[in-house]
């Protein structure tokens, strides 16, 4: 896996514009939501930390780590991360991104990635969802 930033593109805040992967097994995770393992997804209160961005980011980081581990991957194996945040405020988007960078899955945010502000996510009270793709050695 090779990550780089072409000199003709703007500087980044730690991620890389380009990630190239050769000869690896691809791992695609479903969007990871802020639901605890014992949550009832049909419940109106299923989301952990409803309305609390930090709590939700922490739960999503935990869930992503578990899902990556189940596939034999680590955050360092992530080749693309797409972060969805239910907000149109750039400061809120930045806060979510920064908290993920500081989390146990922070290395997942050094490859190609983006953060997207959206109007809503799948569960009532959900503020954040993370979609990652990883590539692991065969």
CATH architecture group name = 2-Layer Sandwich
Main beta sheet: 4 strands, mixed
Distance between the termini: 13 Å
Low-confidence stretches: none
Radius of gyration: 15 Å
Query: What string, H for helix and E for strand, traces the elements in order?
Result: EEEHEHEE
Structure, explained:
The chain is of the alpha+beta class and 138 residues long. It has one domain (2-137): RutC-like (60s Ribosomal Protein L30, Chain: A). The chain is 22% helix and 25% strand. The protein has helices at 53-70, 90-102; strands spanning 2-4, 18-20, 24-28, 78-85, 112-117, 128-137. Helix 2 links the parallel strand 4 (78-85) and strand 5 (112-117).
Name a few traits of the molecule.
two-stranded antiparallel ribbon, alpha+beta, Enamine deaminase RidA (YjgF/YER057c/UK114 family), 6 strands, YjgF/YER057c/UK114, 22% helix, globular, 4-stranded mixed beta sheet
Strand and helix layout:
Elements: E1 2-4, E2 18-20, E3 24-28, H1 53-70, E4 78-85, H2 90-102, E5 112-117, E6 128-137
Entry summary:
This is Enamine deaminase RidA (YjgF/YER057c/UK114 family). With 138 residues, this protein is an alpha+beta fold.
């Amino acid at each position: 896996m090779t990550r780089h930033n072409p000199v003709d593109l703007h500087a980044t805040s730690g991620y890389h514009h380009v990630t190239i992967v050769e000869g690896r097994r691809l791992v695609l995770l479903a969007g990871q939501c802020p639901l605890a393992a014992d949550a009832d997804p049909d419940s109106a209160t299923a989301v952990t930390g409803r309305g609390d961005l930090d709590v939700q980011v922490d739960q999503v980081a935990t869930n992503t780590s578990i899902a990556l581990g189940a596939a034999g991957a680590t955050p360092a194996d992530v080749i693309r991360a797409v972060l969805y945040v239910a907000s149109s405020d750039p400061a809120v988007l930045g806060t979510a991104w920064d908290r993920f960078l500081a989390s146990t899955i922070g290395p997942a945010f050094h490859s190609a990635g983006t953060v997207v502000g959206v109007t809503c996510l799948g569960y009532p009270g959900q503020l954040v969802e993370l979609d990652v793709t990883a590539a692991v050695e065969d």
